[in-house]
Task: inverse folding
């Protein structure tokens, strides 16, 4: 079967047949998903693509598929190849598809130091294949899915095994294949990010609000929008943009009518759900549960943006550590954030290890989640910063 042919699977019977064909194929599985980010509230997969040599390309429409266990059973015995796997793994896990082994072509490309690591750029550089990305930002919750979108999705996934081989060959030549395998496994087993204690504080522009009463209105509007977005499965910003929430809080309207008259209060639901927004504002105006200063997430350190004024010694250490990491990353031909996560560098700067030796720094970084290859490269050079 040629890479440009594909089969659309829309029900359980079709999935069972496709799973049998995939199981009979050879080599790694190319896997991809299409979501409706920016359009829907959920991060669910609205299309799951699988390619395997000797089997072909299958596009699974999850809307009317109730049981993915036959596909999960078929996707065993070899690597899953994804590009930017951390974006796809959560939505795949929701339907019971979890890899036992992983190869991430985007992450491998970063470790190689490629200037551009998007799928189209990497396939052009390593496979000499140009990919059109016309539908990458489409609303994949649309039904029926247009055939050009399906063709785009099929070609993306069909190239992944060949791309995996090209990236692996480059990594082996650069002496970085072991680095990459450790990174792939870290991505595979990484737990979901914990939910923020006060997610409404992340609202864009909300940091300009300082008064407790303003923060209360901001919180109530965010909660009201989030509840409606979940109910409708629509991205919150499409109902009411963050800028409209901030504008309403800043204006502090005295009535629903004055809220409706605001030209800066926009969004597809700004008028149809006006009563909802006004009730939220009233709750913010009258509640006795007034927000205080932003709470620090458990186990986190203060934001490094304020260190230069409040914690100058930590800020100085951070600057030195960053300089060392940047220099080593250039030698290794990879981005600094892949050599060692910036959050780990900040942890070291905030609380220096009790033992400043390379071994002590390595132990501290290992406790924070650094991989063995990272410890070998950065612990000796970072320890120098802590030596008087």
Result:
């Amino acid at each position: 079967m040629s890479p440009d042919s594909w089969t659309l699977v829309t029900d359980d019977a079709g999935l069972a047949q496709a799973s049998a064909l995939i199981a009979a194929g050879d080599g790694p599985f190319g896997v991809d998903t299409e979501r409706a980010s920016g359009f829907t509230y959920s991060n669910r997969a609205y299309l799951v693509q699988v390619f395997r040599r000797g089997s072909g390309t299958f596009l699974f429409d999850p809307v009317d598929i109730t049981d993915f266990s036959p596909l999960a059973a078929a996707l065993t015995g070899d690597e899953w190849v994804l590009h930017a796997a951390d974006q796809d793994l959560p939505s795949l896990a929701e339907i019971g598809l979890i890899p036992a082994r992983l190869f991430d072509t985007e992450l491998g490309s970063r470790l190689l130091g490629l200037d551009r690591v998007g799928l189209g750029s990497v396939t052009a550089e390593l496979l000499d294949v140009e990919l059109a990305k016309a539908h990458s930002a489409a609303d994949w919750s649309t039904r029926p899915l247009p055939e050009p979108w399906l063709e785009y999705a099929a070609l993306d996934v069909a190239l992944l095994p060949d791309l995996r081989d090209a990236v692996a060959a480059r990594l082996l030549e650069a002496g970085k294949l072991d680095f990459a395998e450790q990174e792939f496994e870290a991505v595979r087993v990484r737990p979901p990010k914990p939910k923020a204690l006060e997610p409404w504080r992340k609202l864009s522009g909300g940091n300009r609000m300082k008064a407790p009463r303003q923060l209360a209105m901001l919180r109530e509007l965010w909660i009201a929008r989030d509840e409606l977005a979940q109910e409708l499965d629509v991205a919150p910003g499409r109902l009411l943009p963050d800028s409209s929430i901030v504008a309403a809080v800043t204006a502090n309207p005295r009535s629903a009518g004055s809220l409706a008259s605001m030209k800066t209060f926009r969004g597809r639901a700004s008028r149809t759900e006006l009563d909802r927004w006004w009730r939220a504002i009233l709750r913010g105006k009258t509640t006795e549960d007034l927000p205080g200063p932003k709470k620090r997430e458990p186990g986190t350190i203060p934001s490094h943006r304020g260190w230069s004024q409040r914690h100058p010694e930590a800020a100085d250490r951070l600057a030195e550590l960053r300089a060392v990491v940047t220099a080593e990353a250039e030698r290794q031909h990879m981005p600094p954030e892949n050599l060692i996560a910036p959050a780990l560098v900040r942890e070291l700067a905030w609380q220096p290890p009790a033992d400043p030796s390379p071994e002590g720094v390595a132990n501290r970084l290992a406790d924070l989640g650094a991989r063995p290859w990272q410890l070998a490269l950065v612990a000796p050079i970072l320890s120098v910063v802590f030596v008087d």
The chain has three domains: 6-189, 199-286, 304-386.
